[in-house]
Amino acid sequence: xxxxxxxxxxxxxxxxxxxxxxxxxxxxxxxxxxxxxxxxxxxxxxxxxxxxxxxxxxxxxxxxxxxxxxxxxxxxxxxxxxxxxxxxxxxxxxxxxxxxxxxxxxxxxxxxxxxxxxxxxxxxxxxxxxxxxxxxxxxxxxxxxxxxxxxxxxxxxxxxxxxxxxxxxxxxxxxxxxxxxxxxxxxxxxxxxxxxxxxxxxxxxxxxxxxxxxxxxxxxxxxxxxxxxxxxxxxxxxxxxxxxxxxxxxxxxxxxxxxxxxxxxxxxxxxxxxxxxxxxxxxxxxxxxxxxxxxxxxxxxxxxxxxxxxxxxxxxxxxxxxxxxxxxxxxxxxxxxxxxxxxxxxxxxxxxxxxxxxx
Amino acid sequence: xxxxxxxxxxxxxxxxxxxxxxxxxxxxxxxxxxxxxxxxxxxxxxxxxxxxxxxxxxxxxxxxxxxxxxxxxxxxxxxxxxxxxxxxxxxxxxxxxxxxxxxxxxxxxxxxxxxxxxxxxxxxxxxxxxxxxxxxxxxxxxxxxxxxxxxxxxxxxxxxxxxxxxxxxxxxxxxxxxxxxxxxxxxxxxxxxxxxxxxxxxxxxxxxxxxxxxxxxxxxxxxxxxxxxxxxxxxxxxxxxxxxxxxxxxxxxxxxxxxxxxxxxxxxxxxxxxxxxxxxxxxxxxxxxxxxxxxxxxxxxxxxxxxxxxxxxxxxxxxxxxxxxxxxxxxxxxxxxxxxxxxxxxxxxxxxxxxxxxx
DNA sequence: CAGTGCAATGTAATGGATTACATGAAATCG
DNA sequence: CGATTTCATGTAATCCATTACATTGCACTG
Lengths: 359, 359
Fold this sequence. Notes:
The structure is a homodimer. Chain A is of the alpha/beta class. Chain A has 3 domains: 1-73, 434 Repressor (Amino-terminal Domain) (Orthogonal Bundle), CATH 1.10.260.40; 84-180 and 314-342, 3-Layer(aba) Sandwich (Rossmann fold); 182-312, Rossmann fold (3-Layer(aba) Sandwich), CATH 3.40.50. Chain A contains 11 helices and 12 strands. The longest helix of chain A has 17 residues, at 314-330. Chains A and B meet through helix 4, helix 5, strand 2, helix 6 and helix 10 of A and helix 4, helix 5, strand 2, helix 6 and helix 10 of B. The structure holds a DNA duplex.
């Protein structure tokens, strides 16, 4: 039972005369390893893929040769043959938005627990870019994708697409989605402002194409209605989720002479922009104007004042999305689901009771 | 010259009897397309890869069939054959750090200009994760990598590794790196504090394993020396670049009873943490303590007060890194370079003249 | 009109691994 | 001890596209 490989038998003995490039430091193939180890390519492949079905002596010998010669199997060839890559692509709209980074973490955790690697593709919300990354699935370079936009990229396949939707949701009932109850979250935020006595509550909406934005706006409206507040449409401004958009929205409202004592923003970054714009107009947060955001990104608690916001369970969103995708990859028959998590208001320093009405 | 494909000639005529799965909506291969279009696989391949060498009639006909049947070439097979993927992997230590997002933007811009796609791999500074992504190159799944850590992953290849190093640098002279002059940047920051009259300047260092951190510390020391200031080692605390580390560092210094009127932090996130910790101890920034960061992340200007920091040319770092990598992929003979960009101090509100010495 | 060159297309080798099937030896059974 | 499993390994087909080389028809030349 010596593992030194000196007694390879059952073999023609055409060992070293092979055309293997010997000790040169180049790219190896199974063939070369097989020749060097004096076994067949099948045995090399088996020794690496399912070591338990190869005799111990052979296995150790092959492993030694692999190590000595420095061999990494060509994943393209492997994946071509096996028709799976154990790679998934996560499409994220904006790498600069810290909200997504926590979601990604959740995705990666579950992926690694299940032997998958995650590649990130930044799309900047561009359809073209989304499609380009999605094509990797069609081209068999990845097994599935998690998209964080409200669109489902086209993948020419029949049956269930290996796509899961996170943080957003798509109408298509064939696609599983994980997202939070944006209506309830927004409603909770605005309810809270109402409790504080605010009556003139402005709203900075997000991109109207996105369902979650519509939901957040609806939550805002429902809260106003419940409080029997008029809800002046002129108190709503639209932004694109960027800090700058938040600043511009406030500038706009103020320059229009709108008066309000609170602003609810569709995300934290716009809230951060709003706080800055208010400050530069000499309005104090929260004494003059209360500000609430949505998402609870990492930086929000470090603002001055710390931002009151609706926290999304970012890690859970990611974990759940990846779990669903793996489930789907393992069994294309599992029925699609829309999973809704809850978003909770986190009260910090940017909100305060409504100031006494200025004459 | 009719493009309807009705006059395919020079062909055995064994057209439709093929085993192609006809109109079923499944995954296609060249063979099926060739059969459906009544041409050879070579012609299909050519019509898609180099349309100009195929007659117009045939090309249009094939394109129509491809479109109708919904065919996407298997990239694995293609890449296996051509031995290139036009994919590069960018290893980023921490997706949550906004500094990197701008660098990524630069990388992606140049990549797309040159027909490459970028996949991001988050490593969380873990050697294992770095290696896992780097193995994709060894496994021929990607053409090259840009690493933003101070380590070069092992890739069993002879000659130049298709690796470029950005934001950090490695001693290995065979690897091209792009980074800023950290010594000069740090020095400028501390010089500025000196100019403001500060004499007791604390320093929050980054992970000591990282060369750029050593450089930033050196810049700090050089500035102190130049100003003939003692430079008490007890005024230095070490952090790991996180916001929390910045808070802890300040807590530590204060609890040790250290007195200082300024802090220079090795990155912005630690500076943000520092500001918060100072505030919660009742110390005002900048009246009592000035704070300077490094990087100029997006959120820094939105802090209250806005953070004075050393700005890195993030986009340029990314663009330059990708340019170097493409150059290297096109010609493995190009000599490696270490490219050093400059980092400039951006003065904002977190720094002020040294307060009069308290009794 | 034979000869040459070019354009368009086809045939088959190729890339590197996995794996179904085949084979031989050893172990087990009755 | 012959028959039957089981184990370890080998041979060759396969995954799918690209491309070197071969072939064919046609236009053009002298």
